[in-house]
Design goal:
- The protein is mainly alpha-helical and about 200 residues long.
- Helices cover about 75% and strands about 0% of the residues.
- It is built from eight helices and no strands.
- The N terminus is likely disordered.
Length: about 200
Amino acid sequence: MRALPFEVMMSAAELSLAVLLLLLTPGPTNSLVLVAGAERGWTGAMRLVPAELAGYFLTVLPLTLVGAVVLSDHAGLQKAVTLAAAVWVAVLAVRLWQPLAAVKGGQSVAARMLLVTTALNPKALIFGLVLLPSPDRLVLNLALFAGLVVLVAALWAAAGAFLRRGAVGQPRALFVLRRLASVWLAAISVLLMIRGTGA
């Protein structure tokens, strides 16, 4: 496998640190895992992790193999993906803004929602194009990435579960948490829209 133009060569320790820091950064996926932890507890939120992993690999795996070549040949493709992510995150913001009573089943974060959100997460582009591609250790990099995804999801789910045990377990506090997450996602959507349109 030839080296891709965006590829960054680094040691396993450097790669782990870079991936971990990027995964820990608050974003659409982490916001949903936090809300899931607050709604259904740590164990319930961790049941959604396979959907998060599937979402990441749906985007990351093709990008690590041919992504840089495809994007260099189709300049508008990255902007299109960014705009699609902006629209989806805006939809999530609207959904989280709704009262929990209006959500079917009383839980706003579903596996399908988390999968799509993660697949469209701008972080996936960085993982797939910059950090993970490697002609010599792609499988090892992907295994390391998967382990770190589970670790970070566990941390965000634990944060949500901790809030659930405190005031956020009460309906009013959970309502406030969902509204805050909605506002945060709306801000991310606007930033993605600006980046996608090149404004």
